[in-house]
């Protein structure tokens, strides 16, 4: 099972068997037989709730909904319409059995549980009548999106405490919403779904169903901090049931539904109510604190414990609104950054052209972009031939490269190679340099404008707008560093002449030999803070009045004083460097550790390396190690035989046959 928020895409080609099954009854394109065709245009999705009575119909926005709308706008979802059940979800009244569970109700076996496959109108109405008498039921959905741009539902699994149902969403696509919409919107009934992020959106898109009083077992697993959050782990952990992962990416359009697929679909909801009881028991027993970020948005009628936090997180998921995937001029950039590749301007232009072409074809044919041009094909076509990389377009080489790449998969691009060549030929003429050094046009203007504007702090960045792959990337503006206790402030915003740059940097360092002789500290005068700041500023602008000879004389004097103090056994701390700099600028009496220009104390050359002495020292070390080993061995054999446990003899390696490490 996929994680929360992930839309599964089947990887099999149109009409292929189902892995462990071989059934020829795969319906290739069921959407072709629908009366209402999917709307894949760029227009926004139109929501049409079904099965809601006058009490559930969307009316004028109440005062309680204004907070939700404002919060959605802050998160960037202000363009979405208001959820028709937002007021009902926020004002839910929870009964005691919804919040506490003393004993988990055991699940039945598959053989002992009645199962019904619903693919007719009367069967659907009978299911609706049974669900109206229940106060809790589990739901799961199976979606297909490989051969559809937006995807469509194939199955709906529903389980109560006593029965299992599978509803054929392909046969009853127009009837499920009016029959079950009011039941899903009823706040007195608990709907248990695992990983409901996608399921809630699919119900809105295909069936016009909106959910109230949702309990997401995936959110409960996260609140309990379980090792894993997937449904397969919960089934194995609580029910000791292992699912067959071979059917995870099955083609759910196949009719009639094979037995193994039917059993796999039943298992998704058959055990879910028992898992719901176990999770609720653990949440009630856990004494963990709820995060303040969750409490501040939680309505007052939700409990302020882990159970209430899971219910509120599930409510936030149920208040999502489905929107069609938008396509903009920069949509290719988000997809490009996910590929972890680096393209030059020509290659990026081809990538953008092919990305737009496959999206337009997918919308027109009602196919997924992956079925038109696979991701690997898109990247390889954009990379171009190995010799040119589209930096010298050759029609013949381009045709050979397109034929080689498109022949890998049996999709739309394999039979339309001429269109792919035309898209590449028109894209190579353009130049896209996003984030590279060669920028022209509006990108260059943004970069020049960013170079002249002052840099932004953390708060300014939040107010300025989004920061990420979609934001324009201009050159980095250097900022002045913070004040350091040792070095002071390095004023990087100032500009110096070529010959004065070193002097300007030295002026900002607080070294002993760079102090001015006529400073207030030397004279003993006291200045006001304003006069002190002015004097420091004027001193920095004028530059240090010290020459190279002064620095060398100071270093030689420090070396001489160090030798005199070491001989007399005394040490002086006057005029010493800071402790953190003493190791880096230490001047010792060893010739090999001192700079040659600052060394004027000795003229004798170091003695030559004695190789013979080194060899003797190495030999003595080896002999000493052997003597130590022999001493240990002698102490071992000095133990009496009755107390000695001798190691077993090693088996000899056979000359033929098994030569594994077992015999070594």
Protein described:
Helices cover about 40% and strands about 5% of the residues. It has about 675 residues and is mainly α. A 6-stranded mixed sheet has the order 1-4-3-2-5-6, sandwiched between helices. A hairpin with a 7-residue loop joins strand 2 (about 135-145) and strand 3 (about 150-160). Helix 7 runs parallel beside helix 10 (about 270-285), helix 14 runs antiparallel to helix 16 and helix 14 crosses helix 18 (about 415-430).
Descriptive keywords:
26 helices; 664 residues; mainly alpha; extended; 41% helix; single chain; disordered N terminus; six-stranded mixed beta sheet
Strand order of the largest sheet: 1-4-3-2-5-6
Shape: extended
Total beta strands? 6
Output the radius of gyration: 38 Å
End-to-end Cα distance, whole Å, is 46 Å
Q: Are there runs of 5+ residues with pLDDT below 50, and where? A: 1-25, 55-64, 435-496, 516-524, 569-575, 577-603
Task: Report the structural category.
Answer: mainly alpha
Q: What is the overall number of helices?
A: 26
**Helix coverage percent of residues?**
40-55%
- Oligomeric nature of the chains: single chain
